Every structure is written in structure tokens, then in C-alpha cells.
Amino acid sequence: MSKVCILTDSTVQFTHPNFLGHERVYVIPFGIQTRTEEGIVSRLRSGPAQRLIPPSQQEFIRFYTQLSREYDTIFVLTLSSLLNLASRFALSASVQYCNHATINVIDSQTTGIGLGLLVQAAAAAASEGASPAEIEQRMRASIPRIYMLFCIPELTYLAHSGYMDYSQALVGEMLGLLPIFAIEEGRLTPMEKVRTQRHLFESFQEFINEFDAPAYIALVRGTGHNTIRTRPIRQYVQETFPDTPFSEHAIAPHLAALIGPQSTGLVIMEKLE
User: Fold this and answer.
1) Are the C-beta atoms of 228 and 203 separated by less than 8 Å?
2) Residue 198's closest CA among 232, 165, 221?
3) Is the dihedral of CA 174, 253, 21, 58 positive or negative?
4) Contacts 24+ apart (CB under 8 A), 129-136
5) Hey, is 125 helix, strand or coil?
């Protein structure tokens, strides 16, 4: 029987630490680059912006080599290839890698808690004795069933990551707008802009109401004094789906470097058939 492990990246966020199969999950770290803009200060940030630096191909090869000493199948689940180059580097490294282990790189099309839910599902399947083909099938079936909505007030983080023009982002922050984005097919897609927290709650509520019986719901809280209040969202989720597992998390540092530490998000995973 094939011995399987999962390699993910440090944008991952797990719903709980001791999930089934956690001992076979490994994390390759991102770097974080601090950036400053001379003469320009973000309206929301108290310090300089940050940017994610993905692991290089050589770093992936080093991890593949180390893991192949114990495992003969390595699943690589990193954040969406449309959000960062890590997935592409992982794939290029798998082509260059020469050893007995089979490397299977899957584009998660998500990040953060969404990525964590996929990794947890893969680890559980491996621990229960599923074959590599069955694990891959489960992953590919789960990916389109993960939905993420984020309010990203610090638009300059997106500008530093190359998702929008810096001057446009700065104007958006100065106007005090609360832009809402969805992660759709791995891409950060703008949905709407609202002006108040009440309107934001209504948008999140409409998003929640699109689902009948989700398998899991997670709320991601931003940090800092400008953070959007999450209590109304939390209460509505728990009242609407009292039987659905729910967890709440502070935004992880590497995800914060991607979309800003004051971002607030909802993650919903639908049940597999």
C-alpha cells in the first residue's frame, strides 16, 4: 500500500490542530517582504505593507527529496495558482525532481481556511487507507465545493501583490469603502463595494443564504482597531445553520500579507455527494 503525505504552504489555516492525519502533513514556508511607499501612507495601515514571497523551485525539490525518504506518494496542495506563483514552482520542481516518489501537484484554487479544509480531507483519506487515485478524486471533487468571500479594506495590499493599480487602491482606501471579493475558480473577483458595516453584514447574509446544508462554515476575523465587527455575522451563521460545524479564526499572518490583516472572510464548504 502506498504511503502518502501532503505538502502544503504557510498560507494554510486549519480548523483545528489535531485533525485526522495531521502527522502526515508538511508545510513549506513562504517569505514575507516588507514594502514601503515613500511619501504615500495608506489610510488604514499603521505600518508598511507586506508581500508574499513563494518558495523557489529548489526549495520544493529539497522538500520532495526529504519526504521521499519516508513516503512514496506526495500530494502538493498550495494556494491558488492565480493568487501566487507557488503552485507553478511546485509543478516545475516536480518535473525536475528525480527520485522514486510520485509527486502529484493539485491547484487548490483557494487559500487560508479553504486550503486547510482540502488538506484535512486529503490527510483523513490517506489515514483511512484510501489509494492515491481515490485521494486525488476526492480532492478534485471538493475543490469546486469551497466558497470564500472576503471584505478587503486595505486595497494597497492587493496592489502590492499585483492585483490592481496602486493609485486606484489608494483612492479606494481614502474613500472609506468596504470592497467585497469572492475567490472564484482560484481568482480574486470583485463583487461589490459597500459603505457601512450594516451593508457588509447584509452582503454576507445573502452569501450564507445561497446554501441549503453546508458541510462546514468558518469565519475569518481581521486584526487591528479598524477591524470589522464579526459578532452579527457569527450569530447569523449559528442561527441559520445550528447543526453545521462552525469555527472562528484570526487571520493567519501569511494570508494577512496577501490580502491585508484587517480583512474579514466567510468560508463555506458544501457536502460531497
Assistant:
1) no
2) 232
3) positive
4) 129/1, 131/1, 131/2, 132/2, 132/4, 132/73, 132/75, 132/102, 132/104, 135/4, 135/75, 136/75, 136/104, 136/106
5) helix
Sign of CA dihedral 256, 189, 218, 215: negative
pLDDT digits (tens, 9 = 90+) for 17-36: 999 999 999 999 999 887 65
Sign of dihedral through CA atoms 213, 110, 24, 1?
positive
Order of strands across the sheet that contains 25-28: 25-28, 4-9, 73-78, 102-107
pLDDT tens sequence across 44-72: 454 566 778 999 999 999 999 999 999 99
- DSSP assignment of 171-188: HHHHTT-EEEEEEETTEE
Name the nearest CA neighbour of 80 among 49, 55, 112, 57. Answer: 112
Instruction: For the chain, give the number of residues.
Output: 273
Q: Give dist(CA 215, CA 225) in Å, integer.
A: 32
248 φ/ψ angles, rounded to the nearest 5 degrees = -130, 135
Buried b (16+ CB within 10 A) or exposed e, 158-171: bbbbebbeeeebbe
> 14 vs 24, 34, 105, 107, 144, CA distance in Å?
14, 25, 20, 18, 19
Cβ-contact 148, 255 below 8 angstroms: no
Question: Which letter does DSSP use for residue 210 in this model?
Answer: T
183, 111 contact by CB (below 8 A): yes
Q: How far apart, in whole angstroms, are the C-alpha atoms of residue 96 and residue 64?
A: 11
Are 142 and 123 in contact by the 8 Å Cβ rule? The answer is no
Summary mean pLDDT of the chain: 89
| Residue 110 phi, psi (nearest 5) | -155, -170
